């Protein structure tokens, strides 16, 4: 039902219906913001990435293949925009990032209620400590339930690379969550 609704909105958006775009935004914002929050550290940067994602959605409607799941396409847009953001900010702000690293504030992971819905703060902080590449794989696997094969397709990298990032990310999470209650640790170890 959800996919049919999204497909109807996309069809209307292709015809230039701005109301359909607003409905699409409302229907997907929380999921997209949660994913971006895990992948982009600073709140002001998250907003820039979110804007780019929805602008890209509007301009790439013609590329949507209705035979593929809508959310898979949407998460592909998210990942590509986050990667573009990282490349741009690395090139432009490398010096500023070094300065910010010395005066970095506490993370703002607890600000939006969207981020904390169903997410343990301790696990969120541990995920934040992963490398960007590990974090992308872990977030797509655990928060969006993609298979490793689907993640490889989304990130456009070999399956073996996804598996190594996945296992390295899990190992880092286990190391960073040493004081997690036993029942939570068992859930992480099951993966």
Task: Give your account of this protein's structure.
The chain has 191 residues and is mainly α. It has two domains: 110 residues; 76 residues. It contains ten helices and no strands. Helix 2 packs across helix 3, helix 2 packs across helix 4 and helix 7 packs across helix 9. The longest helix is centred in the middle third of the chain and has 33 residues. The two termini are 29 Å apart.
Number of helix segments?
10
Compute the average pLDDT: 79
Number of strands: 0
User: Roughly what fraction of the amino acids lie in strands?
Assistant: under 5%
Helical content class:
over 70%
Structural domains: how many: 2
End-to-end gap: 29 Å
Q: Briefly note the structural class of the backbone.
A: mainly alpha
Describe the sheet with the most strands. Answer: none
Radius of gyration: 17 Å
Query: What general form does the structure show?
Result: globular
Low-confidence stretches: 105-110, 112-119, 181-189
Helix and strand sequence: HHHHHHHHHH
Protein name: RNA polymerase subunit sigma
Domain RNA polymerase sigma-70 region: 24-91, 126-175
Keywords: DNA-binding, Sigma factor, Transcription, Transcription regulation
Organism: Paenibacillus chitinolyticus
């Amino acid at each position: 039902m959800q996919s049919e609704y999204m497909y109807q909105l996309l069809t209307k958006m292709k015809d230039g219906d701005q109301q359909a775009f607003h409905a699409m935004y409302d229907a997907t914002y929380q999921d997209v913001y949660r994913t971006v929050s895990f992948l982009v550290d600073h709140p002001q940067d998250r907003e820039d990435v979110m804007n780019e994602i929805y602008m890209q959605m509007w301009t790439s409607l013609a590329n949507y293949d209705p035979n593929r799941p809508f959310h898979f396409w949407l998460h592909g847009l998210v990942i590509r925009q986050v990667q573009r953001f990282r490349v741009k900010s690395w090139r432009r702000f490398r010096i500023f990032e070094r300065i910010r690293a010395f005066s970095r504030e506490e993370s703002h992971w607890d600000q939006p209620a969207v981020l904390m819905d169903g997410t343990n703060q301790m696990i969120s902080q541990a995920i934040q400590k992963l490398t960007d590449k590990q974090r992308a794989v872990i977030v797509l696997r655990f928060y969006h339930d993609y298979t490793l094969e689907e993640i490889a397709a989304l990130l456009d990298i070999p399956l073996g690379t996804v598996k190594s990032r996945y296992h390295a990310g899990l190992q880092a999470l286990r190391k960073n969550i040493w004081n997690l209650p036993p029942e939570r640790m068992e859930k992480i170890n099951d993966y």
